[in-house]
Amino acid sequence: MAGPGETAAVLAGGQGTRLASALPGVPKSLAPVAGEPFLARLLRWLAAEGVPRAVLLCGHLAPAVEEFAGGWNAAGRSPALEVSAEPEPLGTGGAVRRALERLPQEFYLLNGDSLCPVRLAALAAAHGAWGADATLTAVHQEEGAARGALELDGEDRVRGFAEKARSGPGWINAGVYRLRRSLFEALPAGRPASLERDLLPDWIARGLPVRAFCAQAPFLDIGTPQDWERAQHEGWLP
To answer: Which DSSP string do the residues of 148-184 spell out, in sequence order?
Structure first.
């Protein structure tokens, strides 16, 4: 179980251009999966992992996310939710920077449109033992190359991100992180930045310890209509 003071930040502000054709006007994180918003399933997993507090980072269609959070809190559900809404698109890294005052010195960061139910306490323990600044969860996929496989060394340090290939196995970034708050403090407030395209490559290039927590866990991304449809039939979802 995660510690009693743990906080998770959830990226729930993506525009979801690929999924919009199937669900116009619905944030990706609130896409219905077997009759329930996907975000509710992700939050239920966080509660089971012992995380008592989550900050939803949103922008696109933020009022819908705010309404969801209000109903969730009114029902007394766990984790307790706060919302950080950006006035203009800031990217995944910029969204974290905007919410920095709400986040502790170390926190979990999750993609709001994917789920990989790893043991968060084990992730945090490995992150601490390595003395890492950033630790991402990696899962092995038979078609991982098509998503852009991670380049890892023999000690699971992240050395880079391979270009997407047509096919082949590989370790992919599952979108579940343990991060130090200080990584974002130098980022100017209000400046757009992508965690995946800008910040992680920069941290690696500067020699900061970025590690991969290689997990044997299922992984689901609902970012496309095909993946969203597949999610309706995944029996392991919380």
So the answer is: --EEE-TT-BEEEEPPP-SS--EEEEEEEEEEETHHH
Query: Under 8 Å CB-to-CB from 8, ≥6 apart: which residues?
Result: 46, 51, 53, 54, 55, 79, 107, 108, 109, 110
Q: How many domains does the chain have?
A: 1
Domain span at residue 21? 7-231
Q: Residue 59 contacts by C-beta under 8 Å, 6 or more apart in sequence?
A: 13, 85, 86, 87, 88, 89, 90, 95
Residues of the chain scoring pLDDT < 50: none
DSSP labels, 80-115: EEEEEE-SS--HHHHHHHHTGGGS-SEEEEEETTEE
Tell me, what amino acid is at 162? A
Helix (H, G, I), strand (E, B) or coil at 34: coil
Instruction: Name the pTM for this structure.
Output: 0.95
Query: Could you tell me the two tokens for 35?
Result: 């009759």
Chain Cα centroid distance, residue 97: 15
Residue 215 near residue 208, CB atoms below 8 Å: no
Looking up residue 227, the CATH number of its domain turns out to be 3.90.550.10
pLDDT of residue 142: 85
Look at residue 140 in the predicted model and tell me its pLDDT: 93
- Between CA 236 and CA 188 the distance in angstroms is 40
- In the prediction, which pLDDT does 74 show? 98
